[in-house]
């Protein structure tokens, strides 16, 4: 509830002047949020401007120099390379479940930060998230070590299906076989990309590279999704919200006159977002100094190997193989983004603003639970979990855990939600589709409710 009747007017005025959040008026409006191409590198740059990390890595109120730790970081050097100069508190807390990791971090302590954290989220020892994390860590020790192989079999099967049907779409001369192969290849590409998301959150592994078959960079996705959306869902720091603006607004906005057209904009653009992300990244080579050397890697060419594979195997002309690949790519893009935007977040009740009772901070885990809507008709099948972003609440709370592990954590989650009065919500996939459309037409925020 707002502390006084003028709260919303003041908050909207500050937001319009880009001086603060609407949700958390004590915080700085994210630097560079509305500038340029709204790409992941720009998001990291803006975050570094606001985080007070002084070119180091910030965790809570401490500054750490992890440069010498990069090459021995169990999760891979890339996570630390990307986040240097920023506040990584939320990432540190949810990516590391083993309590022993704090002793490793302490070895690299430099000094105390000079400015308060520009984040509303807390991680108190007796709070919801840390209590839940301790219980999940204990439960993990009881699970089989090879439980993740269920996930591996699904993504491997999808990848093989995509490779086979993409080639068959060029090999066959029968119209119906070509059309069926094209549609199955498109669906397999979309599902492989979704399933690869399970691996992008974790330490470096070969399956995360399958994401790049979509011509989208998994490295960029680690920023826009794992470091932005996952840590700050449904807030101004969520790049998967700001990245669609000014065409689609999911955050409530006054005087939004074209919200009713958002669904048509989505349907018209989703089929082109895979190639658009590729070309947007390509443009940055001409707009940013040394962008290619700093942000391009060998795996960025993986998507181009698909039309080459189709051409070589089929014996058709490269032009024909390339055109078929474009059809598969764009159809796969349409499927992927329809799955993504209707997955778990774009529901009116999940976007809430205002202060939490008398506090201006809140437990990070409580925010994650209340920013997600799980779907019972997705969670009832592990294949659908892997291909439709299932077990989404637990995935947000513990992104580095394999999806095959998450289903074993529900009793612990429910117990802690009841204890801390967290609003764990479940609905259906159809309801998420309908509510996502409604969300784009909302002009005024809903206030956070008092937790009693």
UniProtKB/TrEMBL annotation:
Q: Where are the transmembrane segments?
A: 154-172, 179-200, 256-279, 300-319, 325-344
Xref: Pfam families:
Cyt-b5, FA_desaturase
Q: SUPFAM superfamilies from the xrefs? A: Cytochrome b5-like heme/steroid binding domain
Does this entry carry the keyword Heme?
Answer: yes
Gene Ontology molecular function: heme binding; metal ion binding
> In what residue span(s) does the Cytochrome b5 heme-binding domain sit?
51-114
- The positions making up the signal sequence are none
| Gene Ontology BP annotations | lipid metabolic process
Annotated keywords: Heme, Iron, Membrane, Metal-binding, Transmembrane, Transmembrane helix
Note whether Metal-binding occurs among the keywords: yes
What is the documented function of this protein? May play a role in muscle cell metabolism.
What family does the Swiss-Prot or TrEMBL record give for this protein?
A: Belongs to the cytochrome b5 family.
Protein name (record): Cytochrome b5-related protein
Native species: Parnassius mnemosyne (clouded apollo)
């Amino acid at each position: 509830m707002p502390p006084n009747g003028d709260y919303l007017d003041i908050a909207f005025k500050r937001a319009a002047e880009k001086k603060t959040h609407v949700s958390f008026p004590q915080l700085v409006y994210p630097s560079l949020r509305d500038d340029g191409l709204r790409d992941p590198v720009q998001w990291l740059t803006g975050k570094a401007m606001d985080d007070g990390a002084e070119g180091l890595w910030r965790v809570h109120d401490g500054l750490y120099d992890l440069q010498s730790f990069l090459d021995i970081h169990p999760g891979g050097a890339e996570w630390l390379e990307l986040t240097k100069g920023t506040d990584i508190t939320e990432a540190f807390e949810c990516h590391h479940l083993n309590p022993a990791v704090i002793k490793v971090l302490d070895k690299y302590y430099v000094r105390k930060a000079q400015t308060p954290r520009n984040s509303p989220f807390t991680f108190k020892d007796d709070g919801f998230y840390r209590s839940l994390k301790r219980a999940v860590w204990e439960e993990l020790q009881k699970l089989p070590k090879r439980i993740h192989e269920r996930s591996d079999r699904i993504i491997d099967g999808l990848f093989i299906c995509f490779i086979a049907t993409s080639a068959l779409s060029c090999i066959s001369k029968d119209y119906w076989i070509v059309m069926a192969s094209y549609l199955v290849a498109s669906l397999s590409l979309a599902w492989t990309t979704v399933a690869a998301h399970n691996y992008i959150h974790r330490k470096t592994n070969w399956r995360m590279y399958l994401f790049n078959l979509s011509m989208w960079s998994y490295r960029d996705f680690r920023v826009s999704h794992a470091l932005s959306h996952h840590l700050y869902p449904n807030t101004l720091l969520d790049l998967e919200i700001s990245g669609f603006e000014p065409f689609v607004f999911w955050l409530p906005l006054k005087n939004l006159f074209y919200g009713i057209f958002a669904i048509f904009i989505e349907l018209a653009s989703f089929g082109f977002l895979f190639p658009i992300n590729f070309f947007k990244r390509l443009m940055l080579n001409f707009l940013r100094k040394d962008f290619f050397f700093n942000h391009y890697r060998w795996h960025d060419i993986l998507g181009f190997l698909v039309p080459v594979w189709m051409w070589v195997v089929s014996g058709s002309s490269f032009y024909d193989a390339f055109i078929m690949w474009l059809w598969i790519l764009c159809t796969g893009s349409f499927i992927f983004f329809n799955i993504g935007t209707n997955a778990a977040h774009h529901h009116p009740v999940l976007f809430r603003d205002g202060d939490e009772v008398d506090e201006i901070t809140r437990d990070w885990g409580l925010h994650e639970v209340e920013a997600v809507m799980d779907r019972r008709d997705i969670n009832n099948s592990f294949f659908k979990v892997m291909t439709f972003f299932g077990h989404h609440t637990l995935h947000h709370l513990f992104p580095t855990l394999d999806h095959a592990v998450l289903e074993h954590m529900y009793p612990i989650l429910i117990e802690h939600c009841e204890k801390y009065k967290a609003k764990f919500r479940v609905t259906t996939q159809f309801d998420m589709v309908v509510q996502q459309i409604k969300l784009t037409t909302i002009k005024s925020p809903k206030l956070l409710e008092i937790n009693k």
